[in-house]
Amino acid sequence: MSSRRKPDWLKMRPPSGQRFTDIKSSLRDRNLHTVCEEANCPNMGECWSGRDGPGTATFMLMGDRCSRGCNFCDVQTGGMEPLDPDEPANVAAAVAEIGLDYVVLTSVDRDDLPDQGAGHFAETIREIKARHPGVLVEVLIPDFQGEERLVRKIIDAEPDVIAHNVETVERLQWPVRDRRAGYEQSLSVLEQVADESDIYTKTSLMLGVGEYDHEIYQTLSDLREAGIDVVTLGQYLQPSRSHLDVFDYVHPDAFETWRRVAEEEFGFLYCASGPMVRSSYRAGELFVDAVLREDKSVEDARREARASD
Fold first, then answer.
1. Most exposed: 211, 223, 260, 269, by fewest CB within 10 Å?
2. Does the residue 66 lie in any domain?
């Protein structure tokens, strides 16, 4: 474990409040998982409460055990269980009960399944859209081993945002990520979505794992070249002694600098950047603010973003 002491800007209060309690109860009643809980996200209380806009909760599909073992992630590996056929309907029901306007769906990797879970993922998107036509759906998908037909299943389900995280700069893909993941493979997934649809694309980078500034800059350039609309940057925090060490705690001022570079120099639609930011951090609030301000339609805003490429 890193011997570096956490700086003051990384101290967070534990989540609390009635809405937090109600959401947690609803999830347990339906045997649903959230990546917020499984990955010990520090922003659960803030995102779930949605004090300044639509609340965001990130449902984790296909169980709470992953077929991969990334060295930064706190989700358990192995011991895969069969898919729950009722999960798509249960997630859609929970969306209504919780009262979400913006839903984030993610999943563990399921390399053990014939379609790696792409069909189950797509079914959940369609179930939510059918029951709640006004709800915006963001999906944070696996790489599906780069198989285009599986990525296309997600595209065809027509979520509003498709995210896939490159996680770190090219040089550090290993040891940060599982060896079955990779920089070019992740870029190809995002590029396919951008090329084959008008769906917004999004990705996330962790800082503090040993990257250099020029590598962050190159990664932002690669992402925009691939047609990515949104990027988030956050501080890597070590979940346990058995996980990857923290190389450095990046100062909030540096995160603000990268936000400006991403938005002003590279033209990303928006960049959420800060020590406690995670890929789904206040996703609903930030998306609605960036895309729907000035009463622009999603399509109009996307065309403007593309025009800056």
1. 260
2. yes
User: Distance between CA 232 and CA 56 in Å, rounded?
Assistant: 15
Burial letters for 33-72: b for 16+ Cβ neighbours within 10 Å, e otherwise? bbbbbbbebbbbbbbbbbeeebbbbbbbbbbebbbbebbb
Q: Does the predicted model carry a pTM greater than 0.90?
A: no
- Are the CB atoms for 224 and 233 separated by under 8 Å? no
Q: For the chain, first and last CA: distance in Å?
A: 42
Average pLDDT estimate for 277-302: 65
Does residue 2 lie within any of the structural domains? no
Distance between CA 309 and CA 244 in Å, rounded?
Answer: 36
If one counts the domains in the chain, the total is 1
Domain limits for position 155: 9-307
Q: Would residue 3 count as lying in a domain?
A: no
The closest of 157, 63, 172, 148 to 109, measured between CA atoms, is: 63
Integer angstrom CA distances of residue 180 from 40, 70, 99, 207, 239 = 24, 10, 37, 21, 21
Lowest mean pLDDT among 24-28, 100-104, 257-261: 24-28
In degrees, to the nearest 5, what angle opens at C-alpha 126 toward C-alphas 122 and 132? Answer: 145
Name the β-bridge partners of 202: 163, 230
pLDDT reported for residue 2: 45
In a domain, 277, yes or no: yes
- The CATH number of the domain holding residue 79 is 3.20.20.70
For 20-49, write each residue's pLDDT tens digit: 666 666 666 666 666 555 555 555 555 555
Instruction: Report whether 167 contacts 189 (CB < 8 A).
Output: no
